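*** Fold description ***
***
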Amino acid sequence: MGKRIFVLLAALAAWQNWERIETFTGLKPTPQEVAASTPVVLYATAWCGYCAKTRSFLAEQGIPYTEFDIEKSSEGRRAYDALGGRGFPLMTIGDTVLRGYNPEGIKAALR
């Protein structure tokens, strides 16, 4: 019985810390690695209406991007904070940082 409880607790701990395990083992790239390989990175939340509008705009324009939900990704949250994050969405397109829903700014940064 004791081994079963230990296995269940170990599985629960792994599940709760899976993001850290992925980053530590190299299975999941860090936000900095993503930004270096993907020109468009979106820092957002699931509940944000302007984030949803930004996702829709990017999809309509066929613009590939990588998204970090800053409430679920501690690495994404740290990158968001390092960019001086205030408000949502926050995007990086290459070296350009865009704040808020800004279709014209996105188009200009991609030129």
